[in-house]
Write a structure and sequence with these properties.
Elements lengths: L4 H11 L12 H38 L1 H7 L4 H25 L5 H20 L35 H17 L6 H15 L2 H12 L2 H31 L25 H16 L13 H4 L5 H6 L4 H21 L3 H6 L1 H9 L2 H22 L1 H9 L3 H29 L4 H19 L50 E3 L4 E2 L7 E5 L6 E5 L12 E5 L7 H22 L1 H10 L6 H17 L1 H11 L2 E6 L5 E7 L1 H44 L7 H7 L4 H7 L9
Antiparallel strand pairs: 1-2, 1-5, 3-4, 4-5, 6-7
Helix pairs in contact: 1-13, 2-5, 2-8, 2-9, 2-10, 3-4, 4-7, 4-22, 4-23, 5-7, 5-8, 5-10, 8-22, 9-10, 9-18, 9-21, 16-22, 16-23, 16-24, 17-18, 18-20, 19-20, 19-21, 19-24
Catalytic activity: L-thyroxine sulfate(out) = L-thyroxine sulfate(in); L-thyroxine(out) = L-thyroxine(in); 3,3',5'-triiodo-L-thyronine(out) = 3,3',5'-triiodo-L-thyronine(in)
Main location: membrane
Protein name: Solute carrier organic anion transporter family member
Length: 722
């Protein structure tokens, strides 16, 4: 790909004099050795790149699995968590253009290796706040903590509480307020994720183009499919690692676990989120090692030595003979000037704007770019908050949600991506067929997603939030009232969230708001008695008991969750089938020397217009469905404790489906342009032999002095063997 100006001039001049069968002078043994060297080198690079994709996918998916953990640990809303998640894309944005354009001219394997080291440094930085913050403190009434002081949940008179206990409680709150200045250390998580984005930047544009440059063309789609399939194994281990760490208490190794009074099923539980980042950082360091020993170039296969552009690319890349010759002369002139008077990268920078103009002048590239941006908005938003959706909608623990995604959904995605590459190769699908396959997978995938609207759970019965204290009236948002006659004599705070489950099956925000007068036991085994608000509908004034923790969901919810899993797996597979065909469409609709630059611009657009905003506005939309916010120790709104399940379902699935539908319209436009630029060509050529819409005759005139290139260009099955 990187040929100097003198070599380029010699190449074109030799094409006019050398015979067509110059390759016959090579011996069969030398050709065989060269083929073995090429195949061996590309396979080594393929293995190294696959492991890097595994490493970056593991750390990225682990971040997705810790969204709720980070939200609770730093007591921040979903919208702010979305900003943290989007900082990865901001890191890409900072250097993606430089890396994708100039990186193709430099030592691509070593640039990828350096990126892995930067990525590992960012991963380690994300885990650092755990070692500098204070211990995690959750909301619990003093009677549920192992203590010798017995305090009534319903503080009808503050004199009920011993002075020493009140003083200690106030002193503990004040100490918490002093330490809360350190809770802004979520900024280090944001900066670490931003550094991860910087390190990950060169992997995709430089790695994929390296394979496409030196692999046999009929194997390119399969190789890219293999890389993406191995990359999907990373999220499997990432979510499984997140599942394991979510079961471990956040301060494991720092506190006595016997003193912890909550379980991993509690809404306030925070797992050891930081532990997985240390593991992911070590893996990223190991992944960087092979790239420091790989060569800058590999020998090209015999089928690609005599052609700078493929036959199918010639259909969709139009360029006039005079313009191409003029452009080539300008490139030679600029290269010679740069070689004598300035650094070599000056010639690259002078070609930047013309290259950008050529890309944006390609309608197939632009339309596919728009379709991808909108589709990735829906997919990124959906994947980011999927663990949270499963936890809140179906009452599953964070550990179980991550385990299900890692063990069921991600393998379906991997199988779908690999199936797409296999279908491309087995049926020899061309660019037009790849566009149809990509469109079909998106259409049926979002059609299946529509059925998930019917697979949700009803809101839990929470007194004062979703039902009245008598349990008979459904509450609207504007009618929320945590205080009632049954708890009017208690000195309760509406900001607390320490749920208990009454024997009537209704959840109460706290034991105080339930009107409980006494308690027995400690920690997880606490039982509250004489709760004036806990009663049956027939005798609401009857005092009853309650236990620690919210009530379990109804019997229908587990069944709905099972249906959700089945449809979710099928949807994941269907949407993923179009992944590899989409990549091939992107690579084949542009000129070879612009492939790296085009992938860089593509990645940049996805990062800026999908990766950064999608988690933020999805998070803002999800925050609007919150019914009960937590409160920070020193005042201010914390993380959401309870969501409106119906509103959450319509917002989460509705946003995903609307964005996906819009992307399908752009995919239809891509298909229409490809059909328009390919079909009329054959009709025009057969009618009068003149140049058709896709410029076939222009290419024939351009290479009239090179029989070799003419033969290669008109090999019809060259690009269809995918």
């Amino acid at each position: 790909m990187e040929i100097s100006s003198k070599e380029n001039t010699q190449f074109f001049s030799n094409n006019t004099t050398l015979p067509v069968d110059r390759s016959s002078f090579k011996s069969e043994s030398s050709a065989s050795k060269e083929k073995q060297s090429c195949c061996g080198g590309i396979k080594i690079f393929l293995g190294a790149l696959s492991f890097v994709y595994f490493a970056k996918a593991l750390s990225g998916s682990y971040l997705k699995s810790t969204i709720t953990q980070i939200e609770r640990r730093f007591d921040i809303p979903s919208s702010l968590v979305g900003v943290i998640d989007g900082s990865f894309e901001i890191g890409n944005l900072l250097i993606i253009i430089l890396v994708s354009y100039f990186g193709a001219k430099l030592h691509r394997p070593r640039i990828i290796g350096a990126g892995c080291l930067i990525m590992s440094a960012g991963t380690f930085l994300i885990a650092m706040p755990q070692f500098f913050m204070g211990r995690y403190q959750y909301e619990r009434f003093p009677s549920t903590i192992n203590s010798t002081v017995s305090i009534s949940p319903c503080l009808q008179d503050k004199s009920q509480t011993p002075l020493s206990a009140l003083e200690k409680s106030q002193a503990k709150i004040n100490a918490g307020c002093e330490k809360e200045a350190g809770s802004s250390m979520w900024i280090y998580v944001l900066l670490g994720n931003l550094l991860r984005g910087i390190g990950e930047t060169p992997i995709q544009p430089l790695g994929i183009t390296y394979i496409d440059d030196y692999a046999i063309e009929e194997n390119a789609a399969l190789y890219i499919g293999c890389v993406q399939t191995v990359a999907i194994i990373g999220p499997i281990f990432g979510f499984l690692l997140g599942s394991l760490c979510a079961k471990l208490y956040v301060d494991i190794g720092f506190v006595d676990l016997d003193t912890v009074t909550i379980t991993h099923k509690d809404v306030q539980w925070v797992g050891a989120w930081w532990l997985g980042y240390l593991i992911a950082g070590v893996i990223s360091v190991l992944a960087s090692i092979p790239f420091w020993f790989l060569p800058k170039h590999l020998p090209k296969p015999e089928s690609r030595k005599d052609s700078s552009i493929s036959s199918e690319q010639s259909k969709f890349i139009t360029e006039d003979n005079k313009d191409q010759h003029k452009s080539y002369q300008q490139q030679v002139k600029i290269a010679e000037m740069a070689k004598g008077k300035s650094p070599e990268f000056l010639s690259w920078s002078l070609n930047f704007l013309p290259s950008l103009k050529k890309l944006f002048g390609n309608p197939v590239y632009i339309l596919y770019l728009c379709a991808s941006i909108i589709q990735f908005n829906s997919l990124i938003g959906m994947v980011t908050y999927k663990p949270k959706y499963i936890e809140q909608q179906y009452g599953q623990t964070s550990s179980k949600a991550n385990f299900i995604i890692g063990l069921i959904n991600i393998p379906a995605v991997a199988f779908g991506i690999f199936s797409g590459g296999l279908i491309m190769k087995k049926f020899r699908i061309n660019v037009f067929g790849a566009a149809k396959l990509s469109l079909g997978s998106s259409f049926f995938g979002y059609l299946l997603l529509l059925s998930l609207f019917a697979m949700g759970c009803e809101n839990s019965d929470v007194a004062g939030l979703t039902v009245s204290y008598h349990g008979s009236k459904k509450m609207a948002d504007y009618e929320q009232a945590l205080f009632s006659e049954c708890n009017s004599g208690c000195a309760c705070s509406k900001n607390d969230w320490d749920p208990i489950c009454g024997e009537n099956g209704v959840t109460y925000v706290s034991a105080c708001l339930a009107g409980c007068q006494a308690s027995n036991g400690s920690g997880k085994n606490t039982v509250f008695f004489n709760c004036s608000c806990v009663g049956t509908m027939e005798s609401p004034s009857q005092s009853s008991s309650a236990v620690v923790g919210p009530c379990q969901k109804g019997n229908e919810c587990p069944k709905m969750f099972l249906y959700f899993l089945v449809i979710s797996v099928i949807t994941s597979y269907t949407l993923s089938v179009g992944g590899t065909p989409g990549y091939i469409l992107l690579l084949r609709c542009i000129k070879p020397h612009l492939k790296s630059f085009a992938l860089g611009i593509y990645t940049l657009a996805i990062r800026v217009l999908a990766g950064i905003p999608a988690p933020v506005y999805f998070g803002v939309a999800i925050d609007t469905t919150c019914l009960k916010w937590g409160s920070k120790r020193c005042g201010g709104r914390g993380a959401c404790r309870l969501y409106n399940f119906s509103a959450l379902r319509y917002v989460y699935l509705g946003l995903t489906l609307v964005l996906g539908t819009v992307s399908i319209f752009f995919s239809v436009a891509v298909l229409w342009v490809l059909r328009k630029r390919s079909s009329p060509q054959d009709e025009t050529l057969s009618a009068n032999g003149e140049r058709g819409t896709c410029g076939t005759k222009s290419r024939k005139d351009n290479f009239v002095h090179s029989d070799h290139l003419i033969q290669t260009t008109y090999w019809p099955e060259k690009e269809t063997r995918l």
